[in-house]
Amino acid sequence: MTIRSRIFTVVGVVIAAAFLQTLVVLRVEGRRADSTASLNRAIWRIENQAELGRLIVELDASQRDDGSGAWAASPDAGDRLWGLYERAAALLPQSLESPESRRELAAVDALMREWRRTPAGDEKAALMGRIRAEFDRFEIRERRRFGDELNKVNSQSLQATLLTLGIPAFAIVMLLVLVAFVARILLDPLRAIANSAQKISGGTFDVSLPRESRDEIGDLVRAFREMITAVQRRQREVTEALAREREQSEISAALRAKAEREHRRLQATVDTVPVALVIVDAETGRIALQNRAAGALIGCEPDDHAAREAYWRAFSVTTRDGAPLDVRAWGAGRVLQGQTIVGEELVVRHPDGREIPILVSAAPLREDDGRISGAVAAFQDITSLYEVDRLKSEFVSIVSHELRTPLTSIKGALQLLIDGRLASDPDHAMLLTVALSNTERLVRIINDILDISKIEAGKLELNARPHAVDEVVKQSLQNVEPIAHGALVSLKADIEPGVPAVHVDLDRVIQVVVNLLSNALKAAPPRSEVTLAARRAGGGFVALSVTDRGRGIAPDKIGLLFQKFQQLDGANTRRARGTGLGLAIVKALVEMQGGKVSVESAVGSGSTFTVTVPVAG
Amino acid sequence: MKVLLAEDEPDVQLIARLSLKKAGFTVVTVGNGAEALERIAEERPDAILLDWMMPDMDGYETCKRLKADPATASIPVIFLTARVQEAEVARAMALGAVGCIGKPFDALALGKQVLELLEPR
């Protein structure tokens, strides 16, 4: 049952009680009127009764005085008195209610009428005595009846009062019951819910809720309980989420701390590296990390990104030849595309005019998924290397010059001695020849050292002009003719008919070919042949090949041929000696003129060294 | 044919002098550039051989002065030097020299080389 219906019920009860009250009051009022009427009648009757008794006494008195039976005062007075009596005796029965009283009164009246007729005397007096006794009994009984009647009216009145008071009292009680009911079914649960709400807001979910009745309060309690459940669940979720979040933040804080530690470690590590290191972020293009050497290279150690960017922009970078270079685009176009740069030379040009040669190495930085997230670049200040290189060149130059001067004297002196046949003893002449050839070898060594020094310093200049291939071949062969003669090896020229002229520095090309021929003559066994061939090579080149029938070169050694200071034969077994610079110089000289060097060799059957030189025009 | 040889190194001077004499030249030798300039008027050589590196006045300076003086400008100058790098040769030619002969020179061919350098003139 719902609260509303309950309240309606209670209100209905109250209204019914009020209605009942009205009925009762009406009824009581009716009865009270009846009681009043009967009381009035009783009073009237008592008065009539008393009047009758008084008249009987007066009638008795009117007879007794003379004993004659006549009226003591006058007959008229006696008759009038009788008349009064008769009227009173006729009226009184009408007011009597019980038939018994009327019967008693009738008996008294009969005795009175007998008394009237009876003449005066003892009989009459005796009759009067009986009448008075009878009337007294009647009167006493009536008075008692009146008292009963009065009591009855009184009790009825009390009843009515009680009834009229009782109904409102009932209504009040009902109202109290209603209030108590409302309090019980409405306020108690509400208070309980309010208390619960307070407790819940205080954080306690351990609350006792009212029973879930089948009414609105029940709905409220159910809803409240569901709310508590929802709040509890939500709070649990929030708590869990908070815990998770805290855990996450602890983890991320730990990770951050770890990352910072790693970063510091990395920074400390890279700071100790004497090479300038810069890590660039691919996305922002910013410098994510740089070490002290990087600051030193640029000349300052900036605090923030802006300052860093500014000073990285302040200097320019050029290639070694001086061509301007956007180092960022240069790096972005290669390293950020996945290319690794190893040791390329650039020059950092400061606004103040200083130039710092650097060796750049760079590599992309990849994420786990292979995406390139940045690049690490190392810039090595090679000023000192340049300085060392310069000093070396200078040293070589000075030493060479200083060596040349005494060699000039020795060589000239020996030549003049031999030519003048000043040594008559053949042994002396032979010894002078040995001294001369060794002097010439010394000169060649010095020339080689000077050449390689110049080539490495980039200071070797070529004077290219058109020259006939015949000229190159002839001069080269002439140059090595004495060696070939001494080695018992025949030289053969094999020039393709109509081979075009070449555009070369003649001295340098002859130097190249002579070098190859000298090597071939060293490798060639006695009585074998060394061939110098000239052929069209295609692509605007002429190929000059030197072929020997020597021991050949093992395939794994071929790669070493053109490196500096490489000598294929061990020091003890080699027949031919040199600086180990010859082929390195050959390669450099040929490549400087746009050509290429190549070797074909088979162990046991000889080697062919080929160089290509550009065709003239 | 008379050549003036300016060479500070006595041994080289001797060899060069013998070589040139052997080739038929009349050789006047001096130890540096300043001396060469002093002697040039009286000797009137057909050619001047200058060592590049000499004390007091080097070959470069000497050549510059010879070419600046109309009296001597026409005398061909040949450098005799260990520095046969192309830049040096170009510098020598720019000064008006007719050529360079590298050291160590071929003592038997020196005279011939000098004649070859003088020939085109």
Explain the overall architecture:
The complex is a heterodimer of chains A (617) and B (121). Chain A has four domains: 3-169, Four Helix Bundle (Hemerythrin (Met), subunit A); 273-381, PAS domain (Beta-Lactamase), CATH 3.30.450; 388-454; 463-614, Histidine kinase-like ATPase, C-terminal domain (Heat Shock Protein 90, 2-Layer Sandwich), CATH 3.30.565. Chain A contains 14 helices and 14 strands. Chain A is 62% helix and 14% strand. Chain A has helices at 3-64, 75-95, 99-117, 122-201, 216-272, 292-298, 305-314, 327-334, 383-419, 426-457, 469-487, 506-523, 555-558, 582-592, and strands at residues 276-281, 287-290, 316-319, 324-325, 341-349, 355-366, 372-381, 465-467, 490-495, 502-504, 529-536, 541-547, 597-602, 606-614. Chain B is of the alpha/beta class and 121 residues long. Chain B has helices spanning 10-22, 33-43, 59-68, 86-94, 110-118, and strands spanning 2-6, 26-30, 47-51, 77-81, 99-102. The mean pLDDT of chain B is 87. At the A-B interface, helix 9 and helix 10 of A face helix 1 of B.
Task: Tell me the layout of helices and strands.
The complex is a heterodimer of chains A (617) and B (121).
Chain A: H1 3-64, H2 75-95, H3 99-117, H4 122-201, H5 216-272, E1 276-281, E2 287-290, H6 292-298, H7 305-314, E3 316-319, E4 324-325, H8 327-334, E5 341-349, E6 355-366, E7 372-381, H9 383-419, H10 426-457, E8 465-467, H11 469-487, E9 490-495, E10 502-504, H12 506-523, E11 529-536, E12 541-547, H13 555-558, H14 582-592, E13 597-602, E14 606-614
Parallel strand pairs in A: 9-11
Antiparallel strand pairs in A: 1-2, 1-7, 3-4, 3-5, 5-6, 6-7, 8-10, 11-12, 12-14, 13-14
Helix pairs in contact in A: 1-2, 1-4, 3-4, 4-5, 9-10, 10-14, 11-12, 12-14
Chain B: E1 2-6, H1 10-22, E2 26-30, H2 33-43, E3 47-51, H3 59-68, E4 77-81, H4 86-94, E5 99-102, H5 110-118
Helix pairs in contact in B: 2-3
